[in-house]
Amino acid sequence: MGAKGLTRRAFLAASGGVAGMLAAAGTDGLLAQRAAAAEKEGVEVSPAEDLMREHGVLRRILLIYEEWMRRLRANQVSGAGSLAESAGIIRSFIEDYHEKLEEEHLFPRIRKVAGLTDLVDVLLRQHQAGRRLTALTLGICVPQALTSPASRGRLSDSLRQFIRMYRPHAAREDTVLFPAFHEMLQEEEYDALGEAFEDKENELFGENGFEHMVARVESIEKRLGIYDLARFTPSQ
């Protein structure tokens, strides 16, 4: 990919910036070490991998939403700011950035692939439905509204619908849409799109925007007590 590839944002902050940020955010030492190694080696991230990593942020917020559904059922509504922050990340990072990239760069191209037009139509309708659900979530997850059982019920239903839709949505994009997108492009165009994605991310979120989003999500997970991955392991 040549010298231009060294400008790609994936773990390429000068003088160890990403690794330092990860360590400061409380990310485990292994990840910080890998980030430092990637910086040194000049690791690149393809457009599809970039989008799939962003799906990782989405999936972690789905776990936060599930935890909030549990809390709503138990009428444990203190600390609703963590839910509002999570929905805000969905709006800014997923809907207004990640999905806009898909809609502007992937969907028009994929529509030309035989057999995938219907998939693109469904994905686009789901983007629109997701934005409606996020607006509803942000409108309800305020302390005054959460005192009402009816409001808690509407909020829980909004979270449930969002989770139910986006798990298969992201999985279908990862396994069908993104591979088809890569296959139909010449490597030069594919690489150029990667640079365009990076430029847009830097414009909206600053340098290392993805890493900062991951750190924000980790902070929310820790506040809610769901950061420890081992807690999801089935008991013997």
Protein described:
The chain is mostly helical and 236 residues long. It has two domains: 1-44, no CATH class; 47-227, nmb1532 protein domain like (Four Helix Bundle (Hemerythrin (Met), subunit A)). The protein has nine helices and no strands. It has helices spanning 17-24, 29-41, 47-73, 81-110, 117-140, 143-146, 149-184, 187-205, 209-224. 29% of the residues are buried.
Write the layout of secondary structure elements.
Blueprint: H1 17-24, H2 29-41, H3 47-73, H4 81-110, H5 117-140, H6 143-146, H7 149-184, H8 187-205, H9 209-224
Helix pairs in contact: 1-2, 3-4, 3-7, 3-9, 4-5, 4-9, 5-7
Keywords, separated by commas or semicolons:
single chain; mainly alpha; Four Helix Bundle (Hemerythrin (Met), subunit A); 9 helices; globular; disordered N terminus
In short:
The chain has 236 residues and is mainly α. It has 9 helices and no strands. The longest helix is centred in the C-terminal third of the chain and has 36 residues.
